[in-house]
Amino acid sequence: MGEADFVIRGDLCYSKDLSRLETLTGGYVVCLKGKSAGAFPRLPEEYRSLPLQDWGDKLVIPGLTDLHIHAPQFGFRALGMDTELLTWLETRAFPEEARYADTEYARRAYRLLTEHVRRGPSTRLVFFATIHTPASLILMDMLEESGLVCFAGKVNMDRNSPDSLREPGADASLAATREWLAACGKYRNVRPILTPRFVPSCSDALMKGLAEIQKEYALPLQSHLSETRREVRWVRELCPDAAGYADAYARWDLFGGEVPTVMAHCVWTDEGETERMAERGVFVAHCPQSNTNLASGIAPVRRFLERGISVGLGSDVAGGAHTSIFRAMSDAIQVSKLRQILAAEDDAPLTLEEVFYLGTAGGGAFFGKNGAPGSFAPGYDFDALVLDDAGLAAPFELSIRERLERAVYLSDDRNIAAKYVRGKSLFPAYKG
Length: 432
Ligand code: GUN
Ligand code: FE
Prior knowledge:
Blueprint: E1 6-17, E2 20-32, E3 35-40, E4 52-62, E5 64-70, H1 85-98, H2 103-119, E6 122-128, H3 133-146, E7 149-153, E8 155-156, H4 170-182, E9 190-192, E10 195-196, H5 204-217, E11 221-225, H6 229-238, H7 245-250, E12 261-265, H8 271-280, E13 283-286, H9 288-293, H10 301-306, E14 311-313, H11 325-342, H12 352-364, E15 384-387, H13 400-410, E16 416-421, E17 424-427
Parallel strand pairs: 1-4, 5-6, 6-7, 7-9, 8-10, 11-12, 12-13, 13-14
Antiparallel strand pairs: 1-2, 2-3, 4-15, 15-16, 16-17
Helix pairs in contact: 2-3, 3-4, 4-5, 11-12, 11-13
The structure holds guanine and fe (iii) ion.
The site of fe (iii) ion has 6 residues, from strand 5.
């Protein structure tokens, strides 16, 4: 057995599936070559020679995945939260993103972001950068160094955007994308993802060219879909020949199939669009806090789950003010209840088990069949958090499930005592 092989002991909690948790008091999880070899109530003989990191009665859970976050928006999070999407994009997001033409500014801002997410509960993140190739590479350099495992995308925008944040045309945007991709070969932990911002900001010629690039490089893709009613109407006006928002991607063959594809929001996704997502294996990044802040609405997550669609959680910073996917879990439960009340639908609200699954294995599945995090079952990548929840104690004894629930609603980054990504410790060094 290799150097990087070890065993962790603690109070373990992970998802068996969408609706069931596994909990083990004083259990063991074995990490071999960056992957979990399984979780056990008693350590099997064959692993007894491995180094043991004993975290006592701390809570040990899989790392979380943030399936949708805008890196350049971290700097202005929690500002301008009293507007709705399209106004917010024009007045807040676009002017701030335009500043990333300045590499010194990008370096300063992305340093703050990287330090913050390295300390937080996500071990995997899927980032939008900006249209700027140099700044996108600065972000990727910093993420690579952080030890986190990420996707990051240089954004494509060639229409309906301010002069300061618009590429001069489809050809220029495609050329910049190729230039960016050519520089991405050096990364081991950060992979490029094709990132047309959303239909309103991408011309037909750009979409067509991106589909060619996607095939050439077999690239995954991320974008936004059916976020607000106003936006959906706008897409219908912009693309009168498309059968709907999803079709405005699908008609260019930019809607799942062979390559992993994730669409953020899907708040106003109807039956037809849901069907199409299920058929094409498109992931949903559910971003409940953003959907509340930007007056978007409440996504029909129960329907997505019933159709077998893969769903993960996103912070959508800075539509969402908080980077924590624990917060996204509790928000997802809360808005699912509001949906039941306000939309008068009989979709059952989400449970703790379900949102924990979405924030771990659900979103983690986007990272691929052979490298997915999100569980301690054998074969998953070993991404783990050790939570010191002593400060969340109760005057009565809490079960592991209850401790998890309190962590979801109450914990912050200070409760994270240790963090591992693919078997590597990000912090701290284990001192025994
Ligand atoms: N749609 C297009 N761009 C954006 C963005 O930056 N944030 C959100 N929430 N939606 C978008
Ligand atoms: Fe977004």
